[in-house]
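Students often ask what a holo structure prediction actually looks like on paper. The answer is less mysterious than it sounds. You provide the chain, you provide the ligand, and the output is a string of discrete structure tokens encoding the 3D arrangement of the protein together with zinc ion.
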Amino acid sequence: MSNLLALIKGKRQEIAAKRLSRNLNTSKPPLGISYLRVFPNPANPDDVFYQAFGMHFVKTVEAGKEKKVAVLCKSATHDEACELCEGIMEAKAIHKGNKAMDEVISEMRASRRFLMNGTITPTPDITTAEKTELVELPQTVFEDVLKLIEEDMTDEIGEPLSAENGYCFKINRTGSGRDTEYSVSPSRKDGKMAIPAKLMAETHNLLEFANSQFDINKASQVAKAIGAVTGVSIGISSTLSLPATGTDGTAAALPGFSSSTTTTTTTTAAAEAAAEAASVEYKAPEKTILPDPEPPVATPTGEAVNQDDLDDMMKELAAL
Ligand SMILES: [Zn+2]
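The corresponding structure tokens follow.
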């Protein structure tokens, strides 16, 4: 294929993927027992099959109506500086010792999660899946999955990621909210089957999806909401100097956002998985030392947030 043709083909795929990405919903393992089949990277089975991902969620009031706003966290997703994370760290430092505020501020943080193509089915039979899902796992569950994949591949027990000979993982999710627990185990026998070609053909572009969740207006709204609660004013003006985004308002033009599956690596999936497993210790934002945080504009106390709001927020977050 000529370079130009490859370029055109790539661009068309990119545009189509972006259009689809924005309104996609992620799937999470439901309460109880379910079976997760992780798909390999559709472009190269030896390449990474996952994407780090994190969002900041806040509640805000617009025209007297309460609404939820969410925006991509550049730190949790791309390990890049995130103004929102920095503002949240500053707020934590300022309100240190105020338990109620600490709770509220902690909920504004973006937890790192991982996206991958796959299916979540009620039985180990993957053929019952109607479509390929954009699976979203909390970091701890993702670590468990990686560990199991690594173990089986190392011991040559099987290749859970193989499209032909792979198998699914049984996930048991119990509890709710902060007491949610997951146990993960391989379903090597019942769950072993080829991924249907139809499903392999409709995988999602993980990076496109992640980047489509960034929006400068939403980032501003989230910054404002954090400021209203914590008194910390977050300047996200630097983000405004980004190259203009496409007319569809997505963040494709963000610097450092490489385009899709071209981020090739020479390591095998297993080596990658091992490296990732060894390095996934989430860099908690508060460990970073801020250069002289500016004094807050206002310093509201925890009373600004009433318990009902807090409960609601907790419930919503738990349901995510
Ligand atoms: Zn962030």
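The pocket of zinc ion is lined by residues 56, 73, 75, 82, 84-85, 110 (CB under 6 Å).
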